[in-house]
């Protein structure tokens, strides 16, 4: 019986947190002023072996309504024919600059190199497998009219066609929806480097601290945490259609798990207490949901276990539905029940396994 009581405490805490996020997301209060000054923007794209994706990203960048920008393409020791795929663009469009890093430097080094070569005080980052809305740069630059703003995050969606990609897109949407709502609740927990902008002065101030962390990535979450530490109120999260970018799903289940283990491996280096607390809340909620599933199968206190599990499902559904309406992907909710059942098992496995062993990224192997 004590197990049920503990389960209720954790789960109702999660329900309260998620419901609060849903209510703030429902208010649709993410508005900003019109852009006044045509600020110069430096777009940095660190990449490795992205010959098939880069041309599409470049095309979306050339279609931007905000014209005052440069693009720094930082090739992190690619082994494919990436340069050939973009050579014509480099020849015809002087806004695009190509740099190659040799000897396996990694994404952090690529980003640092790009920032050092940039000609703007505002840096925008995205990934090579992304495509952006035509007003993307305009939207991301607007918040910097407020001199207090140091870091801007924005919405990232996932392209999909088959059932596996739809499950990935739905799971990813749950992360983005929570990130938007938490930020609007003045308690930001996450952003994604695929759609991020920051002042060069912020990066310069905290880069040495980020470099000291053993994680091969984390330029987004760690930048957020140091921004919250040194510039309270300096973070802004955009939730507008024009600031939206789309990224590619993982091709196989093994790639998907490997990616999530890489993401979760950064949790041991978190420095923000709010982010740590939310991470623990999500983990233990899913532990007790799995425990509750087991008890349901055993037939013990059936209704006592069923009710909170269903309640969790309801608040998860409300939050997702609100967000998916914004990005016009409500069809993904057809897979909600499947994801809600599988998600707790996946979360527990990824959270635990990410703290041990190794993961691969861009054909490189890293210790966790």
Automatic annotation (TrEMBL):
Query: In this protein, which residues make up the domain named Glycosyltransferase 2-like?
Result: 42-203
| InterPro entries linked to this entry | Glyco_trans_2-like (IPR001173), Nucleotide-diphossugar_trans (IPR029044)
Give the family from UniProt. Answer: Belongs to the glycosyltransferase 2 family.
- Name by which UniProt lists this protein: Glycosyltransferase
Keywords of the record, alphabetical order, are: Glycosyltransferase, Membrane, Transferase, Transmembrane, Transmembrane helix
Q: Where are the transmembrane segments?
A: 6-25, 275-296, 302-320, 332-352
Q: Which GO terms describe its molecular function?
A: glycosyltransferase activity
């Amino acid at each position: 019986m004590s197990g049920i009581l503990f389960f209720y405490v954790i789960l109702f805490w999660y329900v309260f947190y998620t419901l609060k996020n849903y209510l703030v997301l429902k208010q649709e209060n993410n508005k900003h002023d019109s852009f006044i000054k045509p600020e110069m923007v430096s777009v940095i794209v660190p990449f490795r072996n992205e010959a098939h994706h880069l041309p599409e990203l470049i095309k979306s960048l050339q279609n931007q309504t905000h014209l005052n920008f440069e693009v720094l393409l930082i090739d992190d020791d690619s082994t494919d024919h990436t340069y050939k795929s973009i050579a014509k663009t480099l020849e015809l469009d002087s806004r695009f600059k190509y740099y190659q890093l040799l000897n396996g430097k990694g994404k952090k080094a690529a980003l640092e190199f790009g920032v050092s070569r940039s000609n703007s005080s505002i840096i925008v980052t995205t990934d090579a497998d992304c495509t952006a809305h035509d007003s993307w740069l305009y939207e991301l630059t607007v918040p910097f009219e407020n001199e207090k703003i140091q870091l801007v995050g924005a919405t990232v969606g996932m392209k999909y066609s088959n059932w596996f990609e739809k499950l990935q897109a739905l799971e990813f949407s749950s992360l983005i929806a929570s990130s938007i709502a938490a930020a609007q609740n003045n308690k930001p927990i996450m952003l994604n480097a695929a759609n991020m902008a920051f002042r060069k002065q912020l990066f310069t101030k905290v880069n040495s601290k980020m470099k000291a962390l053993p994680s091969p990535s984390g330029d987004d979450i760690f930048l957020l945490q140091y921004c919250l530490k040194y510039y309270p109120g300096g973070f802004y999260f955009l939730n507008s259609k024009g600031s939206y970018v789309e990224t590619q799903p993982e091709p196989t289940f093994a790639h998907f798990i490997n990616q999530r283990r890489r993401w979760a491996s950064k949790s041991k280096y978190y420095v923000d207490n709010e982010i740590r607390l939310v991470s623990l809340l999500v983990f233990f909620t899913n532990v007790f949901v799995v425990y509750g599933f087991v008890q349901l199968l055993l037939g013990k206190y059936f209704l006592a276990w069923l009710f909170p599990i269903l309640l969790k499902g309801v608040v998860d559904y409300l939050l997702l539905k609100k967000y998916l309406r914004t990005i016009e992907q409500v069809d993904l909710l057809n897979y909600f029940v499947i994801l809600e059942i599988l998600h707790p098992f996946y979360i527990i496995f990824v959270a635990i396994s990410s703290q041990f062993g190794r993961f691969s990224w861009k054909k490189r192997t890293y210790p966790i």
